[in-house]
Structure formats: structure tokens, C-alpha cells
Amino acid sequence: MNDSSPASGRQLRISAHGYEAVIASVGASLRMLTHEGRDLVVPFDADEVRPAYRGATLAPWPNRIVDGRYTFGGSAHQLPLTEPARGHALHGLVAWAEFTDRDVSDERVVLAAVIEPQGGYPFRVEVTVEFRLGADGLTQTVTGRNLGTDAAPWGTGPHPYLVGGAGRVDDWTLTLPASEVLTVTSDRLSPVAVEQVERHPEWDFREARAIDDVFIDHAFTELSRVDGAAEVRVVAADGRGVALSWDESCPWVQVHTADLPADAENHRIGLAVEPMTCPPDAFNSGVDLVVLEPGAEAAASWRFAAI
Question: How far is Cα 261 from Cα 250, in angstroms, rounded to an integer?
Fold first, then answer.
């Protein structure tokens, strides 16, 4: 980049089949996605410091590592606390990294960055992010490849805020095919236990229903799938909306209603839906944690489609 580059980095625009996407190079962020002119995700301005991880690629972990501390391979590590109000390490290490171009065409963008060994994460991992448009929507694939000589812990996911249509989160209908939810503490959102959604009917959206004023900031699992794919659907009153589907590499999904009562402009304007390869604090629990051996790689994919 140069001094005249926008705050979100280089702007890479792709379009096909009625879809248009703009990828910002900082954080390999999905800055904008439309279908026939209709927003499918909450956008942000090119020269805006990306708010609330909007559209960012999350790696080498999604969500939170409690207290920023974990043990891996017999060694204890302390990460910087990037969510200081709650005292956690949040959403990985590449959200503010500048990605370089690997391939850019009218319908496809491939970006890459290398996580260099550092305090709290002494591993060298290359992160490659592909965005590809097709008749079925926008597919994003994130691949982590271990460039180092030691095994490395790994997880990934996206951070889009889906837009159902006119209005806000309260006005939309949600379908979330998950039978289990990870409960969290009310103050720090630290994981507590995985429970059946029947015990928490306010978070049971296996059958499509209105979100209304329900607060959600939880990870869900035990996902119903069709041909290996799980799908969340957010639909407005006119029957249009957006679907986000993902493969079996992501057994978890974080859903957040983006509650910002002190910020009326941004309060509940999009529903964060974040497929994840592992749950919050997986570096400590080990649940669904991917371990990248030297030279190995792991990929995860998800797809956005207009309804």
C-alpha cells in the first residue's frame, strides 16, 4: 500500500451472476456484497477503520481465548488481550494484517499473508483466502499452511453481518439448524457448557421464526446438514434475504445480534453469523482444534447466496 491507500487497504472488486463483492486487503475483509443492488452483508466505507470486525477473516483462531492464555505442546503461551474490557484474546492475528494479491480476476480474488512467530503464537503459518463468485453465490475458502518446524494450533472463520432486508435484526426471520448451544458467562462471555437448545428455547431457531428482541451472542453446534452443508437463513418480511452455508470443516457457528444500545446507528443492523472450525477457547479445551503439523494445511469454506 501507499500513503494514499484507503484505511481498509486495496479495494478488489469482483462481479458475476448479479453479485458484486468488494474485498479489502486489510484483514482480507469482505467489505461489501450485493445481489442485484441489494446488500447481503452490512458494508463499510473503504476509508473507514473497519468497525466490529465487520467482514474480517479470523485466523489462527476465531472468537475468544480466555485470558489470552493457553498451553500447547507442553509450553504455556500468553497472547495480547485484544478484547481488554473482557480480558480475552479475540479473533486471531490477521484481522489487521495487510494481505498480498495471489490472483485477481473478474470473478475471483486470492489473497495471502504469513503469520510470523511472535509472543503468544510462536508459529509460522501462511493464510490464503479465496473469494470466488458463481451462479450459486460467493464462496470464501480459508487455508492455513504450517511453514514452520513445530506443530501449530489452528482455527478459522469469517465475521460477516448478514442483512435480511429492510429494517433491522428484530424485523427478520432466522433459521439456525443447531440443536446445541454453548452457554457463556454474562459478564465476559467465557464458555460454560454445551447444552441442548430445548433448555434455552429463546435460542432455538431450528424452525424458522422471528428474531424479535432476542439477544444472541453464542456458539452453536450439532448442526443439521443436507449433503454435508449446514445453512443459516435470514429473511425479511418480503420473503427475500440471504443464506450462509458451510461445509463439515466448520462444526460450529457463532451468532450475534450486534446489540449496541449506546450506538443507535449500528444497533442490531445486521446479524453476525460466523461458521467456525472450533468453538470459543478451543486452544484451551482442545475441542475441534486443528493441529497443523509442519508442512500440513487445512481448509474451510462457506458460501453466501441471495434468497
Answer: 31
